[in-house]
Specification:
With 177 residues, this protein is an alpha+beta fold. The chain has five helices and seven strands, in the order H-E-E-E-H-E-E-H-H-H-E-E. The N and C termini lie far apart (61 Å).
């Protein structure tokens, strides 16, 4: 009774909290929110709140719900997001041709350097099996290499030629896992 729970809300979350709860109460539905509150120590904590209005006829008597501290989860999500963003920056800004390929024979993700080196758009490279770009004389060795990787092995120093959009071929040196 010394402080209103509402006064603990983070200023950036207050309007959204009120709008979400008010909308749920108007529709007589439950609500679920994630927001920040100020801890006694002064730090901000993330909480998840699930609640519902309790009515007597049309009269709202009280809000009933459950509040749980999800700060650790939110901090972990933020760290994971930063790692993913850093990995994406490294993947996309590398001068080497980075790729993730599936065992179905298609590239799933390629770095922008593929388009710069070979002239194909990302969409063109992702829409065809990767062997469609391999020089015919290198096809058998490339399929064997793919099979080797598909068996759970790493592959170092594999060379083959890839067709550029202009029809010429470029030698590539692969390392795959």
């Amino acid at each position: 009774g010394k402080i209103s729970f509402v006064k603990l809300y983070h200023p950036d979350d207050t309007d959204r909290i009120f709008q979400t709860v008010e909308s749920a109460l108007n529709e007589k539905k439950s609500f679920q929110l994630e927001y920040r509150i100020r801890h006694q120590s002064g730090e901000w904590r993330w909480i998840e709140e699930v609640g519902v209005g309790v009515y007597n006829g049309d009269q709202l008597l009280l809000l009933e719900g459950f509040v749980s501290d999800i700060t650790t989860q939110k901090l972990s999500e933020e760290k994971l997001k930063k790692v993913a963003e850093e990995n994406l920056r490294v993947f996309n800004n590398a001068v080497s041709l980075n790729a993730i390929a599936g065992f179905d024979g298609y590239f799933k993700r390629i770095s922008p350097s593929w388009s710069r080196r070979l002239g194909w758009t990302q969409e063109e490279l992702l829409s065809k099996p990767f062997v469609a770009f391999v020089h015919p004389d290198d096809l058998e060795a490339t399929l064997k290499a793919s099979e080797h990787i598909g068996s759970g092995n790493n592959l170092l120093n594999f060379e083959n030629r890839y067709r550029s959009k202009d029809g010429s071929y470029r030698w590539l040196l692969w390392s795959s896992a």
